Amino acid sequence: MVLSRRFFINLAIAGVASGSAGTKLALGRTAAIDGQIDPSLLQRALDALNRHRGSIVHQDVMGVVDFSLPSRAPRFHLVNVANGTVQSHLVAHGRGSDPSHTGWLERFSNEPRSNATSAGAYRTGSLYVGAHGRSMRLEGLDPTNSNALSRAIVVHSAWYVNQEMIGHTGMLGRSQGCFAVADSSLSDITMRLGEGRLIYADKA
């Protein structure tokens, strides 16, 4: 998928493509990606990229996670700000955000031991090998996700995130608040985001 021409026009006006800072980012209403990314959510992600530009070293690619969609939908979008291309991946939400396991995120929480997903802007950190295998650390940059590091909220792969699970149950399994993705998606996500980029998660 590719963002509309208006997206590039607005980015050029904002100076994002050239890496300039201090200018508010803008997004045209026509920049929805085939209905896959809600324009208002994409605008909020761009606003977060601008708001946290002092903490985000690399602004060429960002992750936008739309938790207003059900877990069966690819809702972890990798947006290439430089050329407008987008890749979308499956991602699970926390069991504390969906206690009845309906496949829909019902609430966010930043509380320790909530097992819930937190909304807000995250800065991607280093890769490590932990309980879930290869994982990427995340630092919450907003009051709504400020406990991400202490809660060990990370990006990791999980056996319950794949098309086979959707075929059997109509939805993905649930994490403990982490961004759990398919094993086949993990390398692409961690390679394209790397350290020092933005992930913005919320509902449209």
Please describe what this structure looks like.
With 204 residues, the chain is α+β, with helices and mostly antiparallel strands. The chain has one domain: L,D-transpeptidase catalytic domain-like (Beta Barrel), CATH 2.40.440.10. 20% of the residues lie in helices and 24% in strands. The protein is built from four helices and nine strands. It has a nine-stranded mixed sheet with strand order 3-2-1-9-5-6-7-8-4. The relative contact order is 0.19. The model is unreliable at 8-35 (pLDDT under 50).
Work out the helix count: 4
The H-level CATH homologous superfamily, spelled out, is L,D-transpeptidase catalytic domain-like
Distance between the termini: 19 Å
Low-confidence stretches: 8-35
Oligomer: single chain
Under the CATH scheme, the architecture is Beta Barrel
**Rg (CA only):** 16 Å
> What best-fitting shape do the alpha-carbon axes yield?
globular
The helix/strand class is alpha+beta
- Provide the β-strand percentage band: 15-25%
What CATH calls the topology is L,D-transpeptidase catalytic domain-like
